[in-house]
Design goal:
The structure holds two protein chains of two kinds. By secondary structure, chain A is an alpha+beta fold. Chain A has four helices and five strands, in the order αβαααββββ. Chain B starts with a helix and ends with a strand. Classes of the chains: A alpha+beta, B alpha+beta.
């Protein structure tokens, strides 16, 4: 009797777990469908790759050479974390994707490092490229 | 009488165990699903909250946007609704492209490209970087 009772309880438990999984899958709406078309992804533009590399290696000289004053200022503003602190010590810069429309390329990057307070920080920024040159930063 | 009591006890135990099992299964499935989504396995890695936010933003669903943002005061909510109504008359979304994203600790950054058509017929392509914390969009750049 004790053995059959244990088997019964175990079976009920397994059945309950299964029912719970099914209920979760049925009630989970999942990711919302994108009702808009998506643009084609393109390769990382060489100009933005150079910027990413210069940021990752703290190469101020290259940044000053390849970007004008306005885009450098915009890049500085873009490299602030959600608390508003600048990303002072950049540890990595990762290209996440790029897309193109009518000759204009948007290349997305994620930078990680430490902010001015020494806290871990993550920042996303996008370089805007036209005719092979960086014309804007978001 | 004794048999009836035993059966009743077994039934109560069975219902209790089934409920515990169901809750366990539900929580386990939700945790695994969230983990797989966060890791980007079998998906693009795009968090569902970020996608919902972007679609709601383009569709001007101010109530949905409010739910995906940290709690705001009533005046800020009213201002957001006014901004959504005004942008409805000014632009028409044409495309929404997920470029990619990454996480560090509790923070997650997701980047999108958006193409819109302005009232004057010109198309504009711009980017938005969302910073998420605890499933809510705390910063849009």
């Amino acid at each position: 009797m004790t053995e059959s009772r244990a088997i019964f309880i175990l079976a009920i438990l397994v059945g309950g777990i299964f029912a719970g999984v099914v209920a979760q899958r049925v009630t989970d709406p999942g990711i919302r469908a994108n009702p808009y078309p998506s643009l084609e992804k393109v390769a990382e533009p060489p100009a933005t790759a150079q910027v990413a590399s210069a940021l990752a290696t703290n190469d101020a000289k290259t940044l000053a050479r390849i970007m004008d004053n306005e885009t450098l200022t915009a890049l500085k503003d873009a490299l602030t974390d959600p608390q508003g602190a600048a990303l002072a010590d950049i540890r990595s810069v990762r290209f996440v994707g790029a897309t193109e429309r009518d000759g204009r390329v948007l290349a997305g990057y994620i930078a990680t490092g430490k902010d001015m307070q020494g806290s871990d920080a993550i920042v996303g920024f996008v370089l805007d490229v036209e005719n092979g040159e960086i014309v804007g930063v978001n | 009488m004794g048999t009836t009591t035993r059966r009743s006890s077994l039934l109560r135990t069975g219902i209790g165990v089934a409920l515990v099992g169901a809750m366990l299964g539900f929580a386990l499935s939700a945790a695994v699903s969230t983990f797989i989504n966060d890791q980007g396995w079998f998906t693009s890695g795009e968090p569902s909250q970020a996608r919902s936010y972007m679609v709601a933003l383009l569709d001007r669903e101010s109530e949905q946007l409010t739910q995906l943002r940290p709690q705001q005061d009533v005046v800020s909510q009213a201002l957001a609704q006014q901004a959504a109504q005004q942008s409805q008359q000014q632009v028409k979304p044409l495309s929404l492209t997920y470029l990619g994203g990454s996480s560090q600790g509790e923070f997650s950054v997701q980047i999108y490209a958006v193409e819109v058509r302005a009232n004057d017929g010109t198309n504009h392509l711009f980017s938005l970087a969302l910073t998420l914390l605890g499933g809510q969009v705390i910063l849009t750049k």
